[in-house]
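Example record used in the benchmark description.
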Amino acid sequence: MTFSVAASQHSATGMLFDLPVTVRFTPDDITIAPGDGSTITVGGTARTPASHTYRSRGGYIATATVRYRAEVDFGRGWRPVTGTLDIPTAGYPVEVLEARGTLVDRTCAEPPAGPGC
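Model output (structure tokens):
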């Protein structure tokens, strides 16, 4: 199964310590939990696809967690904020009706791509 999670940079403005501030959040990485106990971590910019093979039939709840880093600007330029902010997604139900392996002579990443890519 291919998972596709979109995360983009965004900002918010407000007042902090009676000063106007803008906070910018940039995705660092995305961790996908397909619901079978495994995880996949991919880069956090734009729409990032990730493939996963379920080993057995059944119902699963897939989730993702986007890890953001933050920067603040009080009107004098951007400054990094120490630490990260992990934002989980809601669960997405996945029903695996069939699980079987296929032997191919190449992976989908090798040119020319193998069959089924």
